[in-house]
Amino acid sequence: ETGVTQTPRHLVMGMTNKKSLKCEQHLGHNAMYWYKQSAKKPLELMFVYSLEERVENNSVPSRFSPECPNSSHLFLHLHTLQPEDSALYLCASRQASEANTGELFFGEGSRLTVL
Amino acid sequence: GQNIDQPTEMTATEGAIVQINCTYQTSGFNGLFWYQQHAGEAPTFLSYNVLDGLEEKGRFSSFLSRSKGYSYLLLKELQMKDSASYLCAVVSNDYKLSFGAGTTVTVRA
Predict the structure, then answer these.
(1) If I label B36, which of A88, B4, B28, B101 is the partner at 20 to 30 A Cα–Cα?
(2) pLDDT in tens, A30-76
């Protein structure tokens, strides 16, 4: 139990569906992240929210839409995805500070399959 | 941009030592993390280095040379449960962490 909870753990969707991934952190951190993990590839940073404000958007296609309603919750809204978007989507949180020693705490991930 | 390189796979015998190297070229440097990820599970924190030198924590040690853009993770007295993927990650500013592709370590009996 890392203090970061992601739902659903598994999701299968068609290319025309709309779905959302949810992340909740109980650690009081001030930054939340979405990463995409594909087999044999580096974790790809998608979005970063610091104090509920988006501070990083790593050239992610518009079919992925993040939402951070408060410092404890992060969503990833999915719309008209492609089969190549199938991957493990990891949420993480961190206490970002000048010391930069804050480690990332990851959720278990949401395994997405796009048919 | 960020460029973080680590070997794809390593295999070692139970009880042995394995060293996983990580080289990086980043637009800024504010520390380096090592994470462990078992199959189907979340990555978990192993170590953090921001100054040159060796940090030891039980069977695991991590080394950093900032001038060489180089780090290694040393796993001693390998156990079967150490079979996992090991991720090197560099902090470039106060919120951005960039990861390598991970090194899959297989421990054989």
Answers:
(1) B28
(2) 899 999 999 878 889 999 998 777 877 778 999 999 999 998 999 99
Which DSSP state fits A9?
S
Q: Are strands A73-79 and A64-70 parallel, antiparallel or unpaired?
A: antiparallel
Return the residue matching tokens 């958007």. A57
C-alpha B2: how far from its chain's center? 16
| Token output for B29 | 């440097």
- Which amino acid, A34? W
| Cα gap A86→A14, rounded to integer Å | 11
Helices (H) and strands (E) counted in chain B, each on its own, are 0, 11
Query: Quick one: DSSP state of residue B58?
Result: T
Q: Which residue of A has its CA nearest to B91?
A: A100
Q: What is the pLDDT at residue B94?
A: 67
Residues 23-52 of B with CB under 8 A from A: 30-31, 33, 35, 41-45, 48, 50
Alpha-carbon torsion angle B3, A58, A35, A4, nearest 10: 120
**Tokens coding A76:** 């990833």
Q: Do B42 and A56 touch (CB under 8 A)?
A: no
Take residue B43 and report the two structure tokens written for it. 């990555």
